[in-house]
Design goal:
It is built from one helix and six strands; from the N terminus they run ββββββα. It is of the alpha+beta class. The strands form three sheets. A two-stranded antiparallel ribbon has the order 1-2. Strand 3 and strand 4 form a beta hairpin.
């Protein structure tokens, strides 16, 4: 399944994050932000960290996480 296909499951997806793309390992409609815990619809997922394998809700949240880690 690629990220443009509709998943059959309405639950949380399991995803492998890559540079500029991601692979859906287990189908679902969302992933959880590593910082806020909020659900991010798969079709709206734009921010993640490849090394940490973490998704982020938005750019501000990704920056916040980066600043925490550099801290």
């Amino acid at each position: 399944m690629n990220r443009y296909e509709s998943p059959r499951s309405g639950g949380e997806a399991r995803v492998r994050y890559r540079d500029g793309d991601f692979d859906v390992l287990s189908p679902g409609t969302f992933v959880r932000c590593a910082v806020t815990g909020m659900a991010i619809p798969i079709d709206e997922l734009k921010y993640w960290n490849v090394d940490r394998q973490e998704p982020y809700l938005d750019a501000a949240t990704a920056l916040k996480r980066h600043q925490e880690l550099m801290g």
